[in-house]
Amino acid sequence: MPDDKSFHMTPDEFRRHGHAVVDWIADYHSRIESFPVLSQVKPGEIRASLPASAPAKSESFDTLLKDVEKLILPGITHWQSPNFFAYFASNSSGPGILGDLLSSGLGVQGMLWSTSPACTELETHVLDWLVPMLGLPEKFLSSSTGGGVIQDTASSAALCALLAARERATNYAGNQKGCDGRIVAYASSQTHSSLEKAAMIAGIGVSNLRLIEVDENFAMRPEALARQIEADKRAGLVPCFVCATVGTTSSNAMDPIAPIAEVCRPHNLWLHIDAAMSGTAALCPEFRYLQNGVEFADSYSFNPHKWMFTTFDCDCFWVADRKALIRTLSILPEYLRNQATESGAVIDYRDWQIPLGRRFRSLKLWFVIRHYGVEGLQHHIRRHVELAQRFADWVRNDSRFELAAPVPLNLICFRHKGGDAVNQTIMERLNRSGDLFLTHTKLDGKFTLRVCVAQTNTEARHVEKAWKRIYKEAEKVTVAW
Ligand SMILES: Cc1ncc(COP(=O)(O)O)c(C=O)c1O
Q1: Cα-flanking dihedrals φ and ψ of residue 476, to 5°?
Q2: Which of 119, 156, 437, 450 could bridge across to 37 with cysteines, CB 3.0–4.6 Å?
Q3: Which residue has its alpha carbon closest to ligand 1 atom 16?
């Protein structure tokens, strides 16, 4: 083999292929409505179209891009389609994609301040920007006792919060000796499953995560929380952590933070707020009442990768007392020692998260915030909420349907009055049609349809079409029965 053959992509080739990829992405977004929103492939179909083994010889980049079109696209569920109403959105946007590309281009690993000062300092700065943008308490600012960090997901944020709470409650003995089965944590019965996973990983145990009962609006009952804490204390257990949710996944229920905080205070419990989806609404002052009492929180997280047009993954996580988090997660092996760390003058974000390594995620968040400005972000959030409220009115005014939960923001939970099988059939037929994608939940034991109006490019016409498709499909299903 000749010594001068490098196999690498040259800068000129990279430029040419990079332009082609950006063109492909722009074209993809222009034609996205022509694809079935939910991928229609069968299990194994994508793999069956791929060669059984890796190529021995280099292939041309043009071939790769052609294969994306031919082999990969059929297996894509189009999360960026404006007809995507399922789950909670996982949004992207031009500035988000370009920020992510730049992060890949720089290829920075920002585990320590010294491994790329800009990676750390931009992150600290953008998270400080977001504190007043979202009306969060000043104690979350890096200039105060707290600070913010970007995690991959809300699940990781909840785990970090739970670990710090466990350590604070055990005077940092848990990390040394492990848990003895007496540590207890609390969340509502509607909390996201990531809390259960966090309880498993943190050694607390799923049975020591108390799932507190909810009211008729699926929000945690503070008095039930208080009763459970008292009972646990009487039993000699050690309550350490409460998670309140601003916008539950199932129905967008809002746990009452201020009364929950009042329950936590006398017991010195760590109050974490999971605002993964709905936290973005706080960009608009008129929606901040939904998180009244946020000033009492020990930690808070929300996902710009859900509703704030920032390409996955990007979860913003703040703590009121950074020392507690750092003391919980910090280990400093010899090979990571450096002068900046020793000086105490810098943040090393490896101490604020589970993994050691980390990407330059703040670039995409910085791009999104600067591209839209606060005004642009507020515009889209208000628009989504307005469209969702319009949809809720259509449901209210149609005697064949009913709302299954309040609609505080942009998630509508509703059902046809014909029963579970009718609703499930409507959903499956619509999703098979490819025209739109919606998912379901169970509320009060009944199959419930969920429509979340949050996709970056969803406009009035998409929401109108969705409602029309739903009630027309309902007519067909009920006639057929
Ligand atoms: C309220 C809530 N918390 C946590 C999560 C988990 O999010 P992630 O995928 O960022 O871990 C979700 C996901 O939808 C959610 O809705």
Answers
A1: -65, -45
A2: 437
A3: 249
